[in-house]
């Protein structure tokens, strides 16, 4: 459910801040195809397997954009009924991928953070609804409400933490200390929303689980998971890449003629390297209520809690089909829900890999697919899971596909008040209410520093605005109420409706929040407009530095929205900041789902006649 920017042709156009749960559809380089693997001829799913083999082979053989390698496994009951790898693990050597080839599974790793927390609860060391400051007294933030953040908030994306610590997230060599760096960063920033107020995809929350595990057990997160989860589950081809591995078979990214190994230093939020076969052992334990091969790894209550809908108490939730679990993206997976089946889903994306993990308790079924970015993992997984459920009789027929042709035009509501600028974590949007009742949507083109027209949209009989060329549709939603501090609020969101994956269910998401003009910028901020800034403290092995170069970020403002500062580049994306003082800019939006996910505060400091800009824990100097 967290993959919402799949239309980007290059993963880094979304920015490294957007990964670990948001995967682009493209790659950094053209990869060479190949295929190897094996399957079980006695599988109860011959039709589904044959279809899957064809779909994956097409992906690795696509002449326009081949995918180097894809690996898949399928579980029924306690038996792995299909396990196969396609393509190559190494492009230069054309080494064939095997079922033992490890891939970085990105945010599917979040399930292990949730499992670790459940194990700590089983041992009486934590309670999910107790504020984490009881377990991690060194944790602090500038907003006093930080003291209300609970472990449940961390694991369900409802904590209010800014999003993703951007520094040394993806590197080509291991960089230790990411979790401690994240905690230090959080001490210098405010919450972006009150704990439990809304749910917006948040990697920082899972990174803080690392610090809680260390504080309570004295073990690093990686060591704790390897001892208490991976070893009991016999996941012998899974590990956190805390150092350069000396054994094992790995898939290697290949970019601009060079082969690398990708390291994800945010272990709890996205750092596990694994295989689909190993993940079927995890699935067996989940389906077994915490028991794997006769050994209890976690309580049945812990597994059930992970699979419980955590969205029911949210104050701001304009997209109710987002059913967050603890670690899970969805505990009512929309395509399966359309077929009348309860399913749990977690996706994952890194700079180079894309993964999907499905567990269907009713059918005692699971599927994991992982591979180099460049294929639609969700579409493949949904297609195969639903096909298998039909083949084994769990469902009588596939659900009807949705979307398609725009419905007839209709008389729409007055939308004059909906015009203006909408902020998010990606790029500002402009809404123009035309006299004829149509809506013109524009998006800020950061590199060119101009508005790009997305199109004109007419109101239709289904209550959404459509164009004749865009398969997505749009509408406006106002969410009003009183927050937990007693303050009244009212937010207008631009909503986008898409049909992701295999096309069986709509997904709505808030893509921007309407912002009101503020008082003009004071002289301190005016003097900074037009300046450019270069990152200074990332590791030289950081993936964006190596692949993209150190692109300067710029500071500007929008003439259509006085009082805000716009800052960003291709990597960071483009965010609107509210001046809090002459040396600090704050977050401007509360957007649930994903388009408010990686927000930051911006700080300026001067020393020895040089001025620095700090964004999170990243430090920039004047270019």
Automatic annotation (TrEMBL):
Q: Which residues form the Beta-lactamase-related domain?
A: 64-387
Q: Name one Pfam family in it.
A: Beta-lactamase
On the tree of life, the source organism's domain of life is Bacteria
Q: Which InterPro entries match?
A: Beta-lactam-related, Beta-lactam/transpept-like, Diverse_Enzym_Activities
The protein depicted here goes by the name Beta-lactamase
């Amino acid at each position: 459910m967290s993959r919402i920017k799949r239309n980007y042709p290059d993963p880094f156009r979304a920015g490294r801040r957007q990964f670990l749960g948001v995967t682009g559809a493209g790659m950094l380089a053209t990869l060479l195809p190949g295929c190897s693997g094996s399957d079980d001829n006695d599988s109860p799913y011959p039709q589904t397997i044959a279809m899957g083999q064809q779909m994956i082979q097409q992906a690795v053989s696509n002449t326009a954009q081949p995918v180097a390698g894809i690996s898949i496994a399928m579980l029924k009951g306690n038996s792995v009924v299909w396990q196969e790898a396609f393509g190559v693990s190494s492009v230069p050597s054309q080494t064939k991928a095997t079922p033992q080839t490890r891939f970085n599974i990105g945010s599917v790793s979040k399930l292990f953070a949730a499992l670790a927390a459940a194990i700590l609860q089983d041992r009486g060391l934590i309670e999910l609804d107790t504020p984490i400051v009881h377990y991690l007294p060194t944790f602090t933030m500038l907003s006093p409400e930080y003291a209300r953040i609970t472990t449940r908030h961390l694991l369900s994306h409802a904590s209010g933490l800014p999003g993703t610590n951007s520094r040394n997230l993806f590197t080509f060599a291991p960089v230790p200390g990411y979790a401690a760096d994240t905690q230090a960063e959080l001490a210098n920033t405010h919450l972006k929303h009150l704990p439990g107020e809304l749910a917006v995809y948040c990697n920082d929350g899972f990174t803080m689980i690392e610090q809680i595990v260390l504080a309570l057990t004295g073990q690093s997160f990686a060591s704790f998971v390897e001892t208490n989860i991976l070893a009991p589950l016999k996941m012998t081809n899974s590990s956190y890449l805390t150092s350069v591995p000396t054994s094992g078979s790995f898939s290697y990214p290949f970019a601009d003629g060079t082969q690398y190994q990708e390291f994800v230093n945010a272990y709890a939020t996205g750092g596990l390297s694994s295989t689909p076969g190993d993940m079927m052992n995890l699935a067996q334990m989940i389906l077994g209520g915490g028991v794997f091969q006769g050994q209890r790894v976690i309580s049945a209550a812990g597994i059930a809690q992970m699979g419980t809908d955590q969205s029911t108490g949210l104050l701001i939730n304009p997209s109710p089909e987002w059913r967050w679990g603890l670690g899970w993206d969805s505990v009512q997976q929309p395509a399966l829900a359309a077929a009348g089946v309860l399913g749990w889903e977690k996706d994952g994306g890194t700079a180079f890999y894309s993964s999907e993990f499905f567990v269907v308790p009713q059918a005692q079924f699971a599927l994991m697919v992982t591979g180099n970015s460049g294929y639609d993992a969700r579409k493949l997984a949904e297609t195969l899971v639903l096909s298998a459920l039909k083949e084994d009789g769990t469902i009588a027929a596939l659900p009807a596909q949705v979307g398609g042709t725009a419905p007839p035009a209709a008389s729409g509501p007055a939308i004059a008040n909906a015009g203006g600028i909408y902020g998010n974590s990606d790029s500002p949007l402009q809404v123009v209410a035309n006299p004829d009742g149509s809506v013109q949507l524009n998006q800020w083109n950061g590199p060119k520093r101009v508005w790009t027209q997305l199109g004109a949209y007419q109101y239709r009989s289904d209550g959404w605005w459509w164009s004749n060329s865009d398969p997505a549709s749009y509408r406006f939603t106002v969410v009003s109420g009183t927050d937990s501090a007693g303050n009244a609020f009212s937010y207008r969101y631009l909503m986008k409706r898409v049909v992701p994956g295999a096309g069986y269910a709509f997904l709505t998401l808030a893509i921007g929040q309407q912002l009101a003009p503020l008082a003009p910028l004071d002289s301190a901020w005016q003097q900074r407009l037009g300046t450019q800034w270069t990152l200074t403290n990332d590791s030289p092995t950081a993936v964006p530095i190596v692949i993209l170069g150190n692109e300067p970020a710029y500071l500007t403002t929008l003439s259509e929205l006085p009082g805000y500062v716009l800052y960003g580049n291709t990597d960071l994306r483009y965010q609107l900041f509210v001046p809090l003082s002459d040396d600090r800019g704050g977050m401007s939006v509360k957007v649930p789902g994903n388009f408010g996910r990686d927000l930051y505060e911006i700080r300026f400091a001067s020393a020895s006649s040089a001025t620095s800009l700090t964004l999170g824990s990243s430090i920039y100097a004047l270019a």
